[in-house]
UniProtKB/TrEMBL annotation, chain A:
Signal peptide: none annotated. GO terms for biological process: ubiquitin-dependent protein catabolic process. The 26S proteasome consists of a 20S proteasome core and two 19S regulatory subunits. The proteasome is a multicatalytic proteinase complex which is characterized by its ability to cleave peptides with Arg, Phe, Tyr, Leu, and Glu adjacent to the leaving group at neutral or slightly basic pH. The proteasome has an ATP-dependent proteolytic activity. It is found in: Cytoplasm; Nucleus. The lineage of its organism: Eukaryota, Rhodophyta, Bangiophyceae, Galdieriales, Galdieriaceae. This is Proteasome subunit alpha type. It comes from Galdieria yellowstonensis.
From TrEMBL, chain B:
Transmembrane segments: none annotated. Gene3D superfamilies: Glutamine Phosphoribosylpyrophosphate, subunit 1, domain 1 (3.60.20.10). CDD domains: proteasome_beta_type_3 (cd03759). SUPFAM superfamilies: N-terminal nucleophile aminohydrolases (Ntn hydrolases) (SSF56235). It holds the Pfam family Proteasome. Component of the proteasome, a multicatalytic proteinase complex which is characterized by its ability to cleave peptides with Arg, Phe, Tyr, Leu, and Glu adjacent to the leaving group at neutral or slightly basic pH. The proteasome has an ATP-dependent proteolytic activity. It comes from Galdieria yellowstonensis. GO terms for cellular component: cytoplasm; nucleus; proteasome core complex, beta-subunit complex. This is Proteasome subunit beta. InterPro entries: Ntn_hydrolases_N, Proteasome_beta_3, Proteasome_bsu_CS, Proteasome_sua/b, Proteasome_suB-type.
């Protein structure tokens, strides 16, 4: 991590006690496409806008929602390449946990380790903080979980949350719509409606991505056809 | 004498499954080849109220590994805020042993415990971490072959805790009495959902 010339950290305190690099990283996140997650009674949904810079781009090759393990997945807002580094580390950690204990990793342990990595990059030599916030969703023995991890390395468990460009409006919308006894189907509908709120242009099955994990099913990313069905139900 | 590092200190462990209970037993000898220098050794260690670990082999590695597992388990408990499952612990033991594949710990562990539902869990491993899962009994130590024989003879399914104690004690004593490197006292632990009961056996002190 960093050359010998850069053994000092680039993230340093300002006189007011802030770490400005982290503030700027959060700005990078806030400029990214909106992502949100909702924890239902029997599972978790995560969804995101897929903003393609040009119509010439193949939208199905951009995967914003990814598997970490069979029972956990994540979505990001911010810099895609940074999220891939974290995804790789998270996957590796999940596998090494399985190899040691032959048990699928509890979601909070995975989140803790990912958050630890993000914190390391705010205090190590010659590196910058990650320019992403992650929403990690998973189901383990304790039930369904939704966690948000920020560039600083802090993590929070949420019932429902949004990150990225439209997060303020989205969170307000979710506050009104969320209920503790939501089922996964309701959660998917609510997720789509929330995305629709701040959407520029027409929402279709090619410019959003939805992922879900339930108590008895593995994490999966919905196919465009499945997304189209849900969009139809919401209309 | 002196043919294998695993027989240098002597000792053995036996674990058996009953109906919603397990018993794990061991002798108490600590020797240096033919000389006995201790008769109160602990070979079986409590992991939690439902899980115990028996370790035979080179005494120094037994002690070191036990401390290593205590360290890892304490961290596990702090991080995960729960007790480890027998199967997960057993796998942890196996990966720890295999991590020293080319400079092994000279121990052969036995994991005995109850799952959350109260079902027995037994696992014996060799010094490299190769696991053997059994529904009836597992053995380890210098008189392992004899223990296989006596256990096979006495064990039957669905033993109650009291019956299991009898069967385990008799199997262990009969086997260690024919092994010069094991014996000098015996201890039996019976694990049920209500807790662990420990009994010391009156054995031949030779």
């Amino acid at each position: 991590m960093g050359d010998s010339d850069y053994s000092f950290s680039l993230t340093t305190f300002s006189p007011s006690g802030k770490l400005v690099q982290i503030e700027y990283a959060l700005n990078a996140v806030a400029a990214g496409a909106t992502s949100l997650g909702i924890r239902a009674k029997n599972g978790v949904v995560i969804a995101t806008e897929k903003r393609m810079p040009s119509i010439l781009m193949e939208s199905h090759t951009l995967e914003k929602i990814s598997f970490i393990s069979e029972t956990t997945g994540m979505v990001y807002s911010g810099m895609g390449p940074d999220s891939r580094v974290l995804l790789r580390k998270a996957r590796k950690f999940a596998q090494s946990y399985y190899q040691t204990y032959k048990e699928p990793i509890p979601v909070v342990q995975l989140v803790r380790e990912t958050a630890f990595v993000m914190q390391e990059f705010t205090q190590s030599g010659g590196v910058r903080p990650f320019g992403v916030s992650l929403l990690i969703a998973g189901c383990d023995e304790q039930g369904p979980h939704l966690y948000q991890v920020d560039p600083s390395g802090s993590f929070f468990a949420w019932k429902a949350s949004a990150i990225g460009k439209n997060m303020v409006n989205a969170k307000t919308f979710l506050e009104k719509r969320y209920s503790d006894d939501m089922e996964i189907e309701d959660a998917i509908h609510t997720a789509i409606l929330t995305l629709k709120e701040g959407f520029e242009g027409q929402i279709t099955e090619h410019n959003i991505e939805i992922g879900q994990v339930t108590d008895n099913q593995k994490f999966k990313v919905l196919t465009p056809l499945e997304v189209k069905d849900y969009l139809g139900e919401v209309e | 004498m002196g043919d294998s590092i695993l027989t240098y200190n002597g000792g053995c462990v036996l674990a058996m499954a009953g109906k919603n209970c397990v018993a794990i037993a061991a002798d108490r000898r600590f020797g240096v080849q033919q000389t006995t220098i201790g008769t109160d050794t602990t070979r079986i260690f409590k992991i939690n109220d439902r899980l115990m670990l028996g370790l035979t082999g080179l005494r120094t590695d037994v002690i070191t590994l036990y401390h290593r597992f205590v360290q890892r388990l304490n961290l596990y408990r702090l991080r995960e805020e729960r007790e480890i499952k027998p199967a997960s612990f057993s796998n942890m033991v196996a990966s720890t042993l295999y991590s020293r594949r080319f400079a092994p710990y000279f121990v052969e562990p036995v994991v005995a415990g109850l799952t959350e539902k109260g079902e027995p869990y037994l696992c014996a491993q060799d010094l490299l971490g190769a696991p053997l899962f059994a529904q009836d009994f597992v053995v380890s130590g210098t008189c392992a072959e004899s223990l296989y024989g006596t256990s096979e003879t006495f064990w039957k399914p669905d033993l109650s805790p009291a019956e299991l104690f009898e069967v385990t004690s008799q199997s262990l004593l009969a086997a260690v009495d024919r092994d010069c490197l094991s014996g000098w006292g015996a201890v039996v632990h019976i694990i049920t959902l209500d807790g662990i009961e420990t009994k010391f056996l009156k054995a031949r002190m030779d």
